[in-house]
Design brief:
Elements lengths: L3 E12 L39 H13 L3 E2 L6 E4 L9 E4 L6 E2 L2 E2 L2 E10 L3 E4 L6 E4 L6 E7 L6 H17 L12 E11 L30 E6 L2 H20 L7 E6 L4 E7 L9 E2 L16 H6 L5 H10 L4 H9 L1 H14 L3 H25 L10 H12 L5 H13 L4 H7 L8 H14 L1 H8 L4 H13 L6 H12 L1
Parallel strand pairs: 12-13
Antiparallel strand pairs: 1-10, 1-11, 2-5, 3-4, 3-15, 5-7, 6-7, 7-10, 8-9, 11-12, 13-14
The structure holds adenosine-5'-diphosphate and magnesium ion (MG).
Protein name: Aspartyl/glutamyl-tRNA(Asn/Gln) amidotransferase subunit B
EC number: 6.3.5.-
Family: Belongs to the GatB/GatE family. GatB subfamily.
Length: 499
Amino acid sequence: MSNYVPTIGLEIHAELKTRTKMFCDSKNDPDEKRPNVNICPVCLAHPGTLPVVNREAVKHVLRVGAALGGKLADYTEFDRKNYFYPDLPKGYQLSQYEYPLVSGGELNNVALTRVHLEEDTASSLHDDATGATLIDYNRAGVPLMELVTEPVITSAKQAGDFARELQLLLRYLGASEANMEKGEMRVEANVSVRFDKSQIPNPKSQTNHKSQTNSNDQNSKLGTKVEIKNLNSFRAMERAVAYEIKRQTELLERGESVVQETRGWDDAKQKTFTQRMKEGSADYRYFPDPDLPSLKLSEMPDFAPEELRRAMPELPWVRRGRYTKLGVKTEDAALFTSDSRYGDFFDIVSAEFEGGKLTALAANYLANDVVRIIRDIEEREAKYRPEIPISTRSFKEIIHMVGDKEISSRVAKDLLLRAVTDARSPREIAIEEGILGAVSQEDISAIVDTVLEQNRGVAEDYRAGKAAALQYLVGQGMKAAKGAADPEALREAIQKRLS
Ligand code: ADP
Ligand code: MG
């Protein structure tokens, strides 16, 4: 067992979904392929131009903060973070320093430091043919949210889960598409490894490491951190973090030390590599932007925390919990929560089953058989995210038939497949193909006779205006028909007889 324990802190940027950019009315369109079309004098930093705060972006960040249980600022301002780089036309980035929009909060039990709002830089494109670097200013000034966690994550998997949950939240809130592959969400992982004296059985050795912990600063107990950049997927991120933990642990075990630096992730080599050494902490000379007003958020009614909380959609973890409470398996609940096609379908279907055993049955068929049908379509037709090609009505009918033991699960799977292309209802298919016995009009007449004969009281109730009694009688009729009758036809026949 290793005496070295890893610590990870994440810094995550997300491009916000707004109509216009952060401080001007140039379009914010991440899908624009032509370079330098969504630009204006403000985001190109022409002298004499003035920025204006985008309310939509402020609201997105506050909503994220409210969802994460953070403290929403009642006062905020934007600061200039000064540095030179060709993708930064103003020579400073508008960001937030002393007064972030959100402080604290947590996600997946990971404590958050802050969430603030800033602007994105332009994108640099390296042209291999000419060796030149080209700059596309479409992205310059796009609203960017930055979320910073405390250094409390302890594994690559936990870091991945955190980032995935944040992505889901941003999508639920409509704050960002948060696609890692498109750079709409960018994760930087800070990784350190420290010697853990509590893992040493001999209590005497504790004094040997006293010197490491004699500072009041919490962070001084942590090891030297390395920051990893260019992580373009969750997978890359988890691998890079795992690689870095191993690399640092091995260095320390050999008695060497970790150098504080920024490292990149080489996906081909599956290794991190030195990008640049960290020179102390860069002096960005932050100061409040004199061209922008500070915002007294407490005086702005549509940013009131209670208002934001009231207008919150069902959050991913709440939805997941709702499903597991209904008896849905953990991994299926996760699927229904992360993919709205399945989640919305399941919500419609399960509403009828009211948490009974059919709910779990429906979840199973949806998460296994319907998922397989969708995967087949994706492969066969090379379609991206096809809709579920079965109506909730047909699906429910099949679940009812399985639940009532009218059909076997093998037949149910077959009917599900048939429902994709066959316009008939699953029950019709089953009857017409002789899987279920057909029931004639005369049979229905006879069944209605028997049911009314045996349930006189209920029939009276229905006549007296108790609508629910009808459903009971139809149910009795279906039972008598061994499930093979058309419930609509039964209902009509009973209604007619009792009217
Ligand atoms: P810096 O001043 O270098 O930007 P911060 O204290 O602002 O460092 O932290 C930046 C990120 O690094 C945060 O996500 C934080 O949780 C993480 N972090 C800080 N110290 C460590 C450490 N020793 N090990 C791992 N992560 C750390
Ligand atoms: Mg920092």
